[in-house]
Amino acid sequence: MNAETHTTIRNISKNSVDFVLTNTDLSIANSLRRVVLAEIPTVAIDLVEINVNTSVMPDEFLAHRLGMIPLNSTNIDEPPPVGLEYTRNCDCDQYCAKCSVEMNLNAKCLGEGTMEVYARDLVVSSNSALGQPILADPKARGPLICKLRKEQEISLRCIAKKGIAKEHAKWSPTAAVAFEYDPWNKLRHTDYWFENDADAEWPKSKNADWEEPPREGEAINYQEEPRRFYMEVEGVGSIPPNEIMVQGLRVLQEKLAVLVRDLDEEQPAQMTTNEVPMDENPEMNWSPYQNGGDAAW
């Protein structure tokens, strides 16, 4: 139980990392999963000023699609100009170069065919890599924003800001986080619903190869806790998957440090009954039986 926590990386690629977390408990593993999903800062388009939009797509649809485009968020926690400040912590009134990235999109269809507008058509005002659209497809075009026909036009300005997915999903650096423990269900934490055969209707995952199957007639220890967890993190491209996990651990450490600090600050002010000297608390020393008196009831 006191063994050191160990991580085994099974596979890592440009967009995902697959690893096994051993010698820890469910609370730590699940906390890491939740932090990776919702509390790692990235940059995403937050404000859209539309000057011209004669496309078939309404303004609000267009703004929503722009907000979901993954933007390069590497080193976003560094001090400006390398990274960004949160707008709420910046000294400016609305936004500035320290807390935002400005980009423009101007497109007009002049031909007879259909013109497709992609994320690559966004022009970032700064020369920094921060805030650049992620172009992960083979043709390096990025997500499709809209389509224009002859004489249709869009002209707009975007302001991208720093945030976390707890505020809005557009700031999430992950597309999905797979999480599993006890693939053979030895702990009986899962009740299988099945019609005929549970083994046939609930096939085992690839993680079952990493553990021994239960022996026939093996007793169930209902007090046992899971100690091995299988996680696969798939990123959207704004942050490399290995960096996502590093930042997730850092954010979790910071949250725990704040908790420890607050508990240490409150501890002197909170004294239990046993710590208060009886002669310094006359009200606690009072009793209806003192000096031979009768009970109060």
UniProtKB/TrEMBL annotation:
CDD domains assigned: RNAP_II_RPB3
Gene3D superfamilies listed in its UniProt record: DNA-directed RNA polymerase, insert domain (2.170.120.12), RNA polymerase, RBP11-like subunit (3.30.1360.10)
Alphabetical keyword list: DNA-directed RNA polymerase, Nucleus, Transcription
Top-rank taxon, per record: Eukaryota
Location(s), subcellular: Nucleus
Stretches assigned to the DNA-directed RNA polymerase RpoA/D/Rpb3-type domain: 16-262
GO CC terms in record: RNA polymerase II, core complex
Region (Disordered): 267-297
Cited InterPro entries: DNA-dir_RNA_pol_30-40kDasu_CS, DNA-dir_RNA_pol_insert, DNA-dir_RNA_pol_RpoA/D/Rpb3, RBP11-like, RNAP_Rpo3/Rpb3/RPAC1, RNApol_insert_sf, Rpo3/RPB3_RNA_Pol_subunit
GO BP annotations listed: transcription by RNA polymerase II
The keyword Transcription is assigned to this record: yes
Membership in a protein family: Belongs to the archaeal Rpo3/eukaryotic RPB3 RNA polymerase subunit family.
NCBIfam families listed in its UniProt record: PRK00783.1
Description of how the protein assembles with itself and partners: Component of the RNA polymerase II (Pol II) complex consisting of 12 subunits.
Protein name: DNA-directed RNA polymerase II subunit RPB3
The species this protein was found in: Schizosaccharomyces osmophilus
Encoding gene per record: rpb3
